[in-house]
Amino acid sequence: MTNKKSNKAINIALWIAQGLLALMFIMAGLMKATQPIEALTEALPWVANTPLALVKFIGISELLGGLGLLIPSIFRWKTNLTILAALGLALVMILASGFHASRGEFSAIGMNVILLILALFIAWGRRKKAPILSKN
């Protein structure tokens, strides 16, 4: 009985992590993908020295990754996409950490690490501890 309770707790924790991470990346991705560069520069100073195409690419990647954390799991369709989305977002956070480190923006790296850990927790949990089975 304890193992069943443990799996239920992990499943709940994974859903919370998926929801929070998805919300964060969907909001950040929409902002980067849709807002004018002037508005983005006010909120994210690094945007001023970054090619617009890269900023838009990052935004679209974050948006799709955030959707990928939720949609396959909610609809139980190709649920391995949730794992791939989590791993993709983990990669984005590794690259973001390197980017911020190269610019001397070390205060931004803490949030990158937290998001990286959450993404890896989701990938691990949905692969090993509490997988969601596809309807197919």
TrEMBL record:
It comes from the Bacteria. InterPro entries: DoxX. The keyword rRNA-binding does not apply. Keywords: Membrane, Transmembrane, Transmembrane helix. Its main location: membrane. The chain crosses the membrane at residues 12-31, 51-71, 83-100, 106-125. Coiled coil: none annotated. The keyword Acetylation does not apply. It is a multi-pass membrane protein. It is found in: Membrane. This is DoxX family protein. The lineage of its organism: Bacteria, Pseudomonadati, Bacteroidota, Flavobacteriia, Flavobacteriales.
